[in-house]
Amino acid sequence: MRIVIVTGMSGAGKTTALKMLEDMGFYCVDNLPIRLIEKFVELIQAGGTEAKDVALGIDIRNPEFIGLMSEVITQLKQEEIDCKVLFLEASDECLIKRYKETRRSHPLSQGQRVEVGIAKERKLMAELLSKSDYVINTSQLLTRELKAQLEDILLKGFDYKNLFVTVLSFGFKYGIPTDADLVFDVRFLPNPYYFENMRPLTGNDAPVRDYVMSSDTAKVFLEKLTDMVTFLIPHYIDEGKSQLVIAIGCTGGKHRSVTIANALYEKLKGKEGYGLRLDHKDIEKDGRRK
To answer: Is 60 annotated as a binding residue?
Structure first.
């Protein structure tokens, strides 16, 4: 029997994750009282259900969460039960936006601003976050990307180390992304913008991609960039970093940056140990895509 405890910040997507786990064949229970967890596990072990995989949604809504959660997890692991903790995280800005969209109050805000509740919860959850087996930051994840991450971890058994890498293209004329960890300027590469037939296209189109990558400089740069990023990722994992944004910029964010971001994504895709997504921030800004 395998037990996954789904926890994390309120608004980070725990309910969505539980629904996805249910679709994957997990027997899911949300907001089970903490004092009933061990009894529930005993019932499962005694054949109370045919489920082999169980997911329990436990979070700050439970009044005994802080005092008992770590103790219960430790006890389950001491009994040699395959118990993993999945922690869903998100930035303060993202959580605030989600609460505003749903018009719900934070469980710890107690009539105060949402920001106050988030700050309280983050402080209370810090210890559990540090002890979690898997951490997924959902700030920039699409629903399908979250599902893919859960499948990689829980179905395919990838050796996931809690780092999520975003390869992001952008245009310098629109500003450097505020969440970028590494920024690379590819404005030194041949620019398709100066060709009328390629100007309306993007780096997702073959003519632009082939033109940019026909340059020996682009090929050498991609090779060196890939080497550096693959060298850095394990060190970021060891440091405990949960999110890495690699921003690649050109003037408008349509041609060269998109081409290189796509190429780097393909080089990194399929590696175990971290999640990966691709995003083109400014690709549609000037409205001239075909």
So the answer is: yes
Same domain, yes or no: 8 and 68: yes
pLDDT in tens, 275-290: 888 999 999 887 544 3
The residue type at 56:
L
Q: Is 237 annotated as a binding residue?
A: no
Tell whether residue 1 is among the known ligand binding residues. no
Q: How crowded is the C-beta side of 264, counted as CA atoms within 13 Å?
A: 33
Q: Rounded mean pLDDT of the chain? A: 88
Tell whether residue 262 is among the known ligand binding residues: no
10 is in an annotated binding site: yes
Domain limits for position 209: 164-280
**Residue 107 CA from chain centroid, whole number:** 24
At 112-146, the pLDDT tens digits run 888 999 999 998 888 888 888 888 888 878 888 88
CB-based contact 233:265 (threshold 8 Å): no
Q: Is residue 18 part of a domain?
A: yes
Q: What is the pLDDT at residue 62?
A: 78
62 marked among binding-site residues: yes
Q: Does 61 show up as a binding residue in the annotation?
A: yes
Q: Quote the pLDDT of residue 158.
A: 63
* Cβ atoms of residues 169 and 257 within 8 Å: yes
Q: Is 14 annotated as a binding residue?
A: yes
Instruction: Judge whether 34 is annotated as a binding position.
Output: no
Q: Is 13 annotated as a binding residue?
A: yes
Longest dimension (CA), the chain: 71
Query: From residue 14, how far is each of 3, 86, 130, 135 by CA, in Å?
Result: 15, 9, 18, 12
Q: Is there a contact between 202 and 209 (Cβ–Cβ < 8 Å)?
A: no
- Asked if 13 and 91 sit in the same domain, the reply is yes
Q: Flag whether the pTM goes above 0.90.
A: no
Residue 181 lies in a domain: yes
pLDDT above 80: residue 80: no
What total of structural domains would you count in the chain? 2
